[in-house]
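Teaching assistant's notes for section 4

Start the section by putting this record on the projector. Ask students to predict, before seeing the second block, whether CYTH domain-containing protein will look compact or extended. Collect guesses on the board.
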Amino acid sequence: MSTKFECEVRFFIADIDVFKKHLKNIKAKLLFPYTFTDYYYKPQGKKWNPEINNLRIRDW
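Reveal the predicted structure now:
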């Protein structure tokens, strides 16, 4: 972390290519690279509100 405060925002991405194109269009840039990958559990066929419930698996 480079500052006293930070914000993490989570949301589902339906199409990663469309999302990457949007980031390019708004001239987004990577400030700090991640050295891990997060995977989020989302059960099939059940109500699952990621604002209330989330299960993250971090692969270092």
